[in-house]
Design a protein that fits this description.
Strand content: 5-15%
Strand order of the largest sheet: 1-3-2
CATH architecture: Orthogonal Bundle
Helix content: 55-70%
Radius of gyration: 14 Å
Order of helices and strands: HHEHHEEH
CATH topology: Arc Repressor Mutant, subunit A
CATH superfamily: Winged helix-like DNA-binding domain superfamily/Winged helix DNA-binding domain
């Protein structure tokens, strides 16, 4: 079972709209590189690099090195948080 501090680390990893978009994109394109993420999201390369590092540090994204390319995929925890995000997005407003 995870501690509150461990959960906090994961939650802080997705506590930004750009990181949520990156997480969703990586789920759709496993093995995507930074240049592609920046292009698809119309975002600065350095911004994407910083956000993917935070996602990796939070344990939500795995970086695999192939030559000079860095491939990004979701970790098992990233998949759990992606499921949570998708479910949360589809909730109806509660009065």
């Amino acid at each position: 079972m995870k501690t509150s501090k461990q959960i906090e680390k994961h939650v802080k990893g997705i506590a930004n709209h750009r990181r949520i978009d990156i997480l969703i994109l990586i789920s759709e394109r496993q093995g995507i590189i930074l240049e592609e993420i920046a292009k698809v999201l119309n975002c600065n390369f350095k911004t994407v690099s910083g956000h993917t590092s935070k996602l990796a540090n939070a344990g939500l994204v795995v970086k695999s090195y192939r030559g000079q390319a860095v491939l990004h995929s979701l970790s098992p925890y990233g998949k759990i948080f992606l499921k949570f995000i998708k479910n949360f997005k589809n909730l109806k407003k509660i009065n």
